[in-house]
């Protein structure tokens, strides 16, 4: 059994920053698996925002390159997403995903 819980979402003005966290527990091996952050706006599909591999290689959606940073702490089994210069169109529920497990998501709302 595995469990993921996201936190750190909230309401922020355009141009602001938020740091999301995803804490994993249970049978998830943090050191050998890739993991990622996704987001889903109302009425839209869930899209990949950023991912990080077991050796810390990162990949970003073009729309967030240079503004978002994905990182992880293997010892704490926690995945992070630092989001800077947020835009209103990035309002969505943000989810973390690790080896097929998903968290319940955290709402990010960016006001204009």
User: Would you list the SSEs in sequence order as H and E?
Assistant: EEEEEEEEEEE
Q: Would you tell me the overall average pLDDT? A: 96
Secondary structure class reads mainly beta
Shape: globular
Helix content: under 10%
Instruction: Report low-confidence residues grouped into runs of 5 or more.
Output: none
Question: Which helices and strands appear, and what pairs or packs with what?
Answer:
Elements (H helix, E strand, L loop, with lengths): L1 E6 L2 E4 L4 E9 L8 E6 L6 E6 L5 E3 L7 E6 L4 E6 L8 E7 L2 E2 L3 E6 L1
Task: Describe this structure as you would to a colleague.
The protein is mainly β and about 110 residues long. Helices cover about 0% and strands about 55% of the residues. It is built from no helices and 11 strands. The chain has strands at about 1-5, 10-15, 20-25, 35-40, 45-50, 60, 70-75, 80-85, 90-100, 100, 105-110. Strands 2, 4, 5, 6, 9, 10 and 11 form a 7-stranded mixed β-sheet that branches. Strands 1-3-8-7 form a 4-stranded antiparallel β-sheet, with no helix packed on it. β9 and β10 (about 100) form a beta hairpin. It starts with a strand and ends with a strand.
């Amino acid at each position: 059994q595995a469990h993921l819980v996201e936190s750190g979402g909230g309401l922020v003005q355009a141009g602001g920053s938020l740091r999301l966290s995803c804490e994993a527990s249970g049978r998830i091996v943090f050191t050998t698996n890739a993991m990622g952050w996704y987001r889903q706006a109302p009425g839209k599909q869930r899209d990949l925002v950023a991912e990080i591999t077991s050796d810390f290689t990162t990949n970003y959606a073009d729309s967030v390159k240079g503004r978002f940073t994905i990182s992880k702490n293997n010892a704490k089994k926690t995945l992070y997403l630092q989001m800077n210069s947020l835009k209103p169109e990035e309002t969505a529920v943000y989810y973390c995903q690790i080896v097929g497990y998903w968290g319940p998501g955290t709402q990010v709302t960016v006001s204009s």
